[in-house]
């Protein structure tokens, strides 16, 4: 640079054309040289950048993952935080497909007591999120990329992420596209239903009564954490409209059957609330299904309706008469003891 300046300053006027050409040549050569140096430096930086980029983006090692498992294994890169040391811990996607008052709230608290499971609640209870398939996909993508924040969101070491999804929240309506999404993204379905749909009906009647009555100090609660609260809620005994009983039970049974038919091509497990209550091994099955390390799962929730079904309604005699001899008479029998 210094030599270049002194040259051009020194000789501008007295020189003939040849000398001017020489200076011009010199300037050109210098220019090209400077450019070359600059380019080399930029290139150098770019190479360094590329190197660190490829270190961060290096695909995670999947050699010890069984080939049949690969479609279900993911390494999400959240936009909102870094997975840090767990960036290469595989993550599985799941959805709990259920109906209201089937124990899915309780089941979800059990799952969320596992350090590596994050189940984000009833995301699609908000109507705008299930307006159409594009809003559904957008919502699911965000959940499965670990970018959805709820109290259940875990940390960078989440190994299974999902939500609970009621059949009447767009799931049946858009079943074809949702099955396609589940199968292309490797989402596993956990069906959770009640075996005894009569118990479920009583739970629905009591819960909707409480929406207005608000028995617990003027607040409505669908789930409780103390036996005292559970006793207060269970003190209300609904009257079941027996002329609607069988059609209602059939409608729910039909819905449940259809959902299992629609989603049968999806990797799935079928759980019944009663089985989870009766048999702790079911929670081991679920953890194996989600391929998470086995842990003791716990929930602070307390069951509201305990004891015999006959003591939970006003018109048990009428209900018995209606169901005896029908497809639904098994619902009259005790199915679990607490
Ligand atoms: C889907 O619903 C959202 C929200 O209601 C709306 O903004 C969007 O235009 C809809 N998209 C399609 C394709 O209908
Ligand atoms: C589960 O979480 C712990 C603690 O955050 C982490 O060390 C572990 O690697 C995680 N396990 C899996 C299977 O991701
Ligand atoms: C209602 O509120 C009182 C006073 O705060 C409290 O002692 C009682 O336990 C509450 N009852 C229930 C059912 O939450
Ligand atoms: C039971 O349902 C039927 C059909 O909807 C209705 O006509 C009847 O009034 C209901 N009975 C009671 C006691 O609510
Ligand atoms: C639902 O499926 C069960 C078992 O396959 C069957 O017994 C029942 O009749 C079905 N119910 C309806 C309403 O389709
Ligand atoms: C409990 O569940 C396990 C796993 O699903 C099953 O193998 C076992 O037979 C069940 N036990 C009882 C008593 O039903």
UniProtKB/TrEMBL annotation:
<protein>
    <recommendedName>
        <fullName>Sulfotransferase</fullName>
    </recommendedName>
</protein>
<dbReference type="InterPro" id="IPR027417">
    <property type="entry name" value="P-loop_NTPase"/>
</dbReference>
<keyword id="KW-1133">Transmembrane helix</keyword>
<feature type="transmembrane region" description="Helical">
    <location>
        <begin position="21"/>
        <end position="42"/>
    </location>
</feature>
<dbReference type="InterPro" id="IPR052796">
    <property type="entry name" value="Nod_factor_sulfotransferase"/>
</dbReference>
<keyword id="KW-0812">Transmembrane</keyword>
<keyword id="KW-0472">Membrane</keyword>
